[in-house]
Amino acid sequence: MAEQEGEGYTYPAPGDESTADQTRTTEGGVLVVDDRSSEDIIKQLVGRVDTLSIEYNKILLTVDDLKKRNQQDQNVKDQLSDIETRLTVFTQQAFMNHRKRIVHESKNFAAKLKGLSESIDQESAKFESILDNAYKKMDEISDQFQMFHATSHAYRYPITVLSEKVEDLDTRVSILEGGEGRAQSLEPHDLDDEDHHDLADEDHHDLADEDHHDPIIMND
User: Fold this and answer.
1) Whole-number CA gyration radius for the chain
2) What gap in Å lies between CA 218 and CA 157, rounded to an integer?
3) Comparing C-alpha atoms, which of 53, 49, 52 is closest to residue 41?
4) φ, ψ for residue 145 (rounded to 5)?
5) Longest C-alpha distance within the chain, in Å?
6) Are 3 and 19 in contact (CB under 8 A)?
7) Which residue among 52, 166, 168, 187 has the highest number of C-beta atoms inside a 10 angstrom radius?
8) Could you give the CA distance from residue 90 to residue 96 in angstroms, rounded to a whole number?
9) Does the model's pTM come out above 0.70?
10) What are the distances in angstroms from CA 152 to CA 6, 102, 187, 212, 214?
11) pLDDT by residue for the chain (220 residues), tens digit each?
12) What is the DSSP string of 161-201?
């Protein structure tokens, strides 16, 4: 159906009978659409309004959904920011606590090391004192041993001489006991004088020999 537009109305094109049957002209020359055609147009308009309303509602729902998402995103951002802030504060506090603990433990360890070093120094001083005393005792023992060695050398010859004297006296006693004729011919006084004279001579000779040998022994 071909239509031509006029000023404020639509009229049928020439030869269009169907449209002419549905329209009429009033006295004022205004073209009025038939009631049936108006109802269709109104229905179409109402349908379009309903469609637009539905689309508008969808748009509103979408906008609300976006707002909710934005709000949720903002809430998430706020929560993340709060978590980040708490984590930062916790990390700083933990770092400060660990730092204080490290400093405290370091001071305690330094004090223990100082005490241990002082104890080691004291024990070292005691040990050095013990070593010094031990060395002194060893020197004293060495000196005493040398003196004993020298004394033993000094008395070795006199002891030997005395032993020889004892053996000689024992031999003489045996001879005297065995020689009865001589014992009868000699008076006790004469025998005592002879023995005294012999012993005096031997003692003098032994003392001279001892004095002669002592410097050599002491020099050794």
Assistant:
1) 75
2) 12
3) 49
4) -65, -40
5) 223
6) yes
7) 168
8) 10
9) no
10) 167, 72, 43, 17, 12
11) 444 444 444 444 444 444 444 444 445 444 455 555 777 888 888 888 888 989 888 998 998 888 888 888 888 888 888 888 988 998 899 889 988 989 988 898 899 999 999 999 999 999 999 999 999 999 999 898 888 888 877 777 788 888 888 888 888 888 888 765 454 554 544 444 544 445 445 544 544 444 444 444 444 3
12) HHHHHHHHHHHHHHHHHH-HHHHHHS-HHHHHHHHHHHHHH
Instruction: Show the tokens assigned to 161.
Output: 């001489």
Say which amino acid occupies 60: L
Please report how the helices 35-178 and 188-219 are oriented relative to each other, as an axis angle in degrees rounded to 10: 150
Q: On the CB side of 75, how many CA atoms lie within 13 Å of its CA? A: 6
CB 12 within 8 A of CB 33: no
Both tokens of residue 153? Answer: 């050398």
Q: Which 8-state DSSP code applies to residue 184?
A: H
d(CA 141, CA 129): 18
